[in-house]
Automatic annotation (TrEMBL), chain A:
CDD domains in UniProt: fer2
Signal peptide (residue range): none
Name of protein: 2Fe-2S ferredoxin-type domain-containing protein
Pfam families given in the database record: Fer2
Gene3D superfamilies per record: 3.10.20.30
Span of domain 2Fe-2S ferredoxin-type: 51-156
Natural source organism: Frieseomelitta varia
Upper taxonomic lineage: Eukaryota, Metazoa, Ecdysozoa, Arthropoda, Hexapoda
GO biological process: one example: steroid biosynthetic process
Subcellular location as annotated: Mitochondrion
Automatic annotation (TrEMBL), chain B:
Protein name: NADPH:adrenodoxin oxidoreductase, mitochondrial
Domain FAD/NAD(P)-binding intervals: 21-177
EC number per UniProt: 1.18.1.6
Annotated catalysed reactions: 2 reduced [adrenodoxin] + NADP(+) + H(+) = 2 oxidized [adrenodoxin] + NADPH
InterPro entries in the cross-refs: FAD/NAD-bd_sf (IPR036188), FAD/NAD-binding_dom (IPR023753), Ferredox_Rdtase (IPR055275), Ferredox_Rdtase_adrenod (IPR021163)
Keyword Electron transport: yes
Cofactor(s) essential for the protein: FAD
Broad enzyme group: oxidoreductase
Organism, scientific name: Frieseomelitta varia
Family, similarity comment: Belongs to the ferredoxin--NADP reductase type 1 family.
Length: 161, 460
C-alpha cells in the first residue's frame, strides 16, 4: 500500500477499476477538493439528495439523467451509461478534454466552483470552446444545480452517425 | 425482369446472414477507437485488429510519458472494446511482410490503416550522425519500453543537452531529463532507463524552436507542468519576447493563455535568486545548422532567425545570417514524426510521410485514421474524434454482398508462414506478469522489452 501514498492518482484509478467502473469516483487533482470529494463518497447514498441533469446533443436530442448531490457530471454520465462516445476518457484526472460541456451563461455563473488553471488548460484543447465551457468531471452537483441543462459539443455527436 | 427482382429479393434477404468483417492495422488509440465505433454502429460486424508487436495500445503504452499515468486511463475503454465477442486482437503480425494489404482486402470486407507514425523526421544537417545526437522518438521509446529502442546508445554523463523542437514530445524529453529521478521510481518507466537517469549529470537543457513564442508548439498543460518542476528553474530569453506584449490581447483564448503564462514567468526570470540545480532554457528563433564535434557532439551551431509575414500563425522563420553556438554533450532531434509505407500497394506520400487519403478514404474498401492519415499532430481527443468519424464512414460504405473468410483466412496465411499470433488473452498473460514484476519494484508495471520473451509468455 506504499504505492497508494506515493502514487495517489494512479492507485486511485487502479482501485476504481478493481471496484467497478460504473462506481468509480471521478475526481480532481486538487488536494483540497480531493478531500471534499473523498468525504462525500463516504456518505450513504440514501442520504444524498437526488438531482436531475438534461444533456442536449447538437442535434437537439435531449437526454435526462439523475444523480446525487456530490456527484460530478462525469459520474452522472457514467452511472447512467449515457451514450456519449469517448466522454471522460481520462476518468476525471484532468488530462483530457473529452468531457467538455457548454453551459448557459446563467448556469455557468451559478456553478459552485471556478475553473482552475489546470481545467482551463485542458479546455483550451477542446473543440468548440466557448466562454461558458467547463469540464463535466469538475462540476460537482449541488441541490441548487438540480434541473440544469448542459450542451454536449457537436464534435462528440458528429462522430455518431 | 421479374426473375431478376426475385433474385435481388433473395439476395437482400440472404445478406442478413452475411457478417461484415473488417480488419484494422495498428492497435493504438486510433485503431481501438475506430473498432469501438464500428462495433457500436453495426450489430453484427466483426472487427479484427492486427498489431506488429505482441502487445496492444500503441502510443498509450509507448508514447505517453511514464509520469502521466492518468492519460493511460483510456486503456480501460480499450479493454471494454476488447471484451466484445465480435472483436479480436491479433498481435505479432507484421502487415506488409507476414501478410499483404492485397491479401487482407481479399479476406476482409474493408481494411483500415491506423498504424501511426513510427519514424522521426530528420534535420538533414551536418553532424547529425555524431555520437549522442539522439532521435527524440527513440529516447521516448527507450524509457517507455519499445523493444527496438531498448538498446539505445546514449551517454547522460554530460551536463548540457539541447532538444531541437518544442512540441509536447520535446517537453516530455526535457521533463524526464530534469525531473528528480526519485519521482520516476514509482512509474512504469523501464528499469534500465531509470538506472541510467539516476546517474545522469544533465543540469542544463535547452529547448530550441525556429519560430517565436507566439508560435510555440507545446500545449499549456505541458508547459505549466515543467514550469513547476521541483528543483528546476525555467529561464526565458527576454529578447525573444520583443513585441509579444503588444499582440497578446488580440489572440484567441488558448494562445492568449499560453502566451500570458510565458510572459508571467519571463518576469520572474529577471529576478533569479533561487538556488536550484537544474535549468531549462526555452530558446526561440533559432534553427539548427550543424552539430559540431569529432566523434561525439560537443556543440550545436544555430542560425538566428527573424519572422516574416503579417499573420501571427502563418509567420515563417528566415535566417538573419547571424549564428549562435551552444555547447552540448547531448542533442535530441524532436521535430515531428512521419509514417512509413508498410506495403507497396498503399498509396503513400513519401514527402510528408502520410498515407494518401481524402477524409479517411484511401481507395475502395481501404481507409486510414489517426496519425497515419492526419499527420502526427493533436492530442487523444483529436485522434478519438477522427477515428470515430472514419469508423462511421466505413460502416456506411461496407459492401455486404458476399461472405468473406476474415480471421479464418488470415489464420491460414499466417499458419502457412509459421507466424505465431498473440490473441488478447495471450496479451493478458504478458500484462499480468508485467504488473507482478512491477509490484516487486513498487511500480505499476515493469514492461517486458524483449519480443521473444513476450512471445514465450504469451504462447505458453
Amino acid at each position: 500500500m506504499a504505492l497508494v501514498n506515493h502514487f495517489k492518482k494512479f492507485s486511485r484509478s487502479v482501485l476504481n477499476i478493481a471496484s467497478n467502473y460504473s462506481k468509480y469516483t471521478s475526481n480532481t487533482m486538487l488536494p483540497f477538493l480531493q478531500t471534499t470529494r473523498g468525504a462525500s463518497t463516504t456518505q450513504q447514498l440514501s442520504e444524498k439528495q437526488e438531482v436531475n441533469v438534461t444533456f442536449v446533443r447538437a442535434n437537439g436530442e435531449r437526454i435526462k439523467a439523475k444523480g446525487k448531490v456530490g456527484d460530478t457530471i462525469l459520474d452522472i454520465v457514467v452511472n447512467n451509461e449515457i451514450d456519449l462516445d469517448g466522454y471522460g476518457a481520462c476518468e476525471g484526472t484532468l488530462t483530457c478534454s473529452t468531457c467538455h460541456l457548454i453551459f448557459s451563461k446563467e448556469v455557468y455563473d451559478a456553478l459552485p466552483n471556478e475553473p482552475t488553471d489546470e481545467e482551463l488548460d485542458m479546455l483550451d484543447l477542446a473543440y468548440e470552446l466557448t466562454d461558458t465551457s467547463r469540464l463535466g468531471c469538475q462540476i460537482v452537483m449541488t441541490k441548487k444545480l438540480d434541473g440544469i441543462e448542459v450542451r454536449v459539443p457537436s464534435t462528440i455527436n458528429d462522430a455518431r452517425a | 425482369m421479374q426473375l431478376a427482382e426475385i433474385y435481388n429479393y433473395i439476395r437482400s434477404f440472404s445478406t442478413q446472414h452475411i457478417v461484415p468483417k473488417v480488419c484494422i492495422i495498428g492497435a493504438g488509440p486510433a485503431g481501438f477507437y475506430a473498432a469501438q465505433q464500428l462495433l457500436k454502429t453495426s450489430s453484427n460486424i466483426k472487427v479484427d485488429i492486427l498489431e506488429k508487436l505482441p502487445v496492444p495500445y500503441g502510443l498509450v503504452r509507448f508514447g505517453v510519458a511514464p509520469d502521466h499515468p492518468e492519460v493511460k486511463n483510456v486503456i480501460h475503454t480499450f479493454e471494454k472494446t476488447a471484451s466484445n465477442p465480435r472483436f479480436q486482437f491479433i498481435g505479432n503480425v507484421n502487415v506488409g511482410k507476414d501478410v499483404t494489404i492485397k491479401e487482407l482486402q481479399e479476406i476482409y470486407h474493408a481494411v483500415l490503416l491506423t498504424y501511426g507514425a513510427e519514424e522521426d523526421k530528420l534535420l538533414n544537417i551536418p553532424g547529425e550522425n555524431l555520437n549522442n545526437v539522439i532521435s527524440g522518438r527513440r529516447f521516448v521509446g527507450w524509457y517507455n519500453g519499445v523493444p527496438a529502442d531498448s538498446n539505445l546508445n546514449i551517454n547522460l554523463d554530460v551536463e548540457e543537452a539541447v532538444i531541437l523542437g518544442q512540441g509536447n514530445v520535446a517537453i516530455d524529453i526535457a521533463r524526464i531529463l530534469l525531473t528528480p529521478v526519485d519521482k520516476l521510481r514509482n512509474t512504469d518507466i523501464t528499469s534500465f532507463a531509470l538506472e541510467k537517469l539516476s546517474k545522469s549529470k544533465i543540469r542544463k537543457v535547452s529547448l530550441i524552436g525556429r519560430r517565436g513564442p507566439l508560435q510555440a508548439a507545446f500545449t499549456i498543460a505541458e508547459l505549466r507542468e515543467i514550469l513547476k518542476l521541483d528543483g528546476c528553474k525555467t529561464c526565458w530569453r527576454v529578447d525573444d519576447f520583443t513585441n509579444v506584449n503588444q499582440v497578446v490581447n488580440t489572440l484567441a483564448r488558448p494562445r492568449k493563455r499560453l502566451t500570458t503564462l510565458m510572459l508571467k514567468y519571463l518576469e520572474e526570470t529577471s529576478s533569479d535568486t533561487e538556488a536550484t540545480t537544474k535549468r531549462l532554457y526555452p530558446i526561440f528563433l533559432r534553427s539548427p545548422v550543424e552539430f559540431l564535434g569529432s566523434n561525439t557532439v560537443h556543440s550545436i551551431k544555430l542560425s538566428v532567425n527573424s519572422l516574416e509575414g503579417n499573420d501571427v500563425f502563418t509567420q515563417f522563420a528566415v535566417s538573419t545570417g547571424l549564428f549562435e553556438e551552444i555547447e552540448c554533450g547531448l542533442a535530441f532531434r524532436s521535430i515531428g514524426y512521419k509514417s512509413v509505407q508498410i506495403d507497396a500497394s498503399i498509396p503513400f506520400d513519401i514527402k510528408i510521410g502520410r498515407v494518401k487519403n481524402i477524409a479517411g478514404k484511401v481507395q475502395d474498401k481501404l481507409y486510414a485514421a489517426g496519425w497515419v492519415a492526419t499527420g502526427p499532430v493533436g492530442v487523444i481527443l483529436s485522434t478519438m474524434t477522427n477515428a470515430f468519424q472514419i469508423g462511421t464512414l466505413m460502416n456506411k460504405e461496407l459492401p455486404i454482398t458476399e461472405n468473406k473468410p476474415g480471421f479464418v483466412g488470415l489464420s491460414k496465411i499466417l499458419a502457412q508462414k509459421g507466424i505465431p499470433i498473440v490473441l488478447y488473452n495471450d496479451w493478458k498473460k504478458i500484462d499480468k506478469l508485467e504488473c507482478e514484476r512491477g509490484k516487486i519494484l513498487g511500480k505499476p508495471r515493469e514492461k517486458i522489452v524483449d519480443i521473444n520473451e513476450m512471445l514465450e509468455i504469451a504462447l505458453k
